[in-house]
Design brief:
The complex is a heterodimer of chains A (224) and B (166). With 224 residues, chain A is an alpha/beta fold. Chain A is 33% helix and 27% strand. Chain A contains 7 helices and 10 strands. Chain B is elongated.
Amino acid sequence: MGGIIELKDVTKIYSTKDTPEIIALNKANLTVEEGEFLSVCGVSGSGKSTLLHLIGCLDKPTEGTVSVKGSVTTQMNEKELARMRNGTVSIVLQDFGLIPSRTVYDNLVVPFYFSSNRKGMNDKIKSALEFTGIADLNQRPVIKLSGGQKQRVAIARAIVNDNPILLADEPTGQLDTQTKKQIMELFHKLNEKGKTIIMVTHDIDMAKETSRIVKIADGSIMES
Amino acid sequence: MIKLTLKSIWEQKGINSSSVVLLSLVFSVQLLLCAWLEGILNIYNEDIEKANSLRLIFTLLILVSVTSIITLINYVMNKRRNEFRTLRLCGATPTYILACKLLHLLVIVIVSLLGGSILFLLLSKILNQHYKFNGLFPVYILFVVITAAELTVYHFMHRKDEKWAG
């Protein structure tokens, strides 16, 4: 296995007693090299988010293997998957995934609750806030921030633990054109610093800014 | 580590004061209604037909009140859904999230029951001048037992919907 992320013949089937089986991913193969900035494009329901969830250690495939930074996540238990989410893969969501009633600082502290390395926590938080340009919003409740500011907080939280892989699920979906550009600039800066980034998007213009585009349709990766 | 984890559970799952006030009010009103009906039942104890029909209303009222409480608690828990998801994204295990949920639920129910009981005692003292309450204790116990049982059933019925939070 060569890349920082490797998917081999990955199939994900969702099934419940009441509904028929849904094949979200069908024998998908993908290799992502370290330091790459990759975008995943496809229509709604094509399997983009499922792919991100599998790489992000939020779910396990029905068949096939997923390897993240040399570790096969398919064989991991819940505790090990949680450790991966805390120390290897960070996720930025379209709806930000923040705690609205809490301050920006409180939201950035959350990853440290589950980390064994809390040394220099405040310095790391300060540095993440400065990098994302929201150092002055430190004590402001998230609920009082604009969409762009919330996404910056989400990115700051994603980088505060210095995880090498950053996954973004439609990170600019709820933002205006100007803010989209600013968020994309942040991703480029992070990529220049060596982060591997996978961004799921509908927006082809945003996708064109990345180093590689992967298209996904009906659970199959069409080209990479 | 344990101290920090418990602290984090408490901080992240700190109960919302307005939800508790709302639940306390609902509990106290329902307890008052139960006590009032129990009082009526005792008054009409000799008229079996009337007492039986009142018992039916009494049972229906309990069912309605339990459903309303479950709806309210579900509403409060849903408001926290984002937070459970955030914890999961940041590295919490499903067991930790389940512990957070149970603790959150427990705190809401206990605090609301206590709040409701205090409110009930205060209100019943005022209303006692007009209505005589008898046999309140069994009603109270029944009420709590039914609520707890329904909450348990409700929790397990909706577990599959909470895929995100583990």
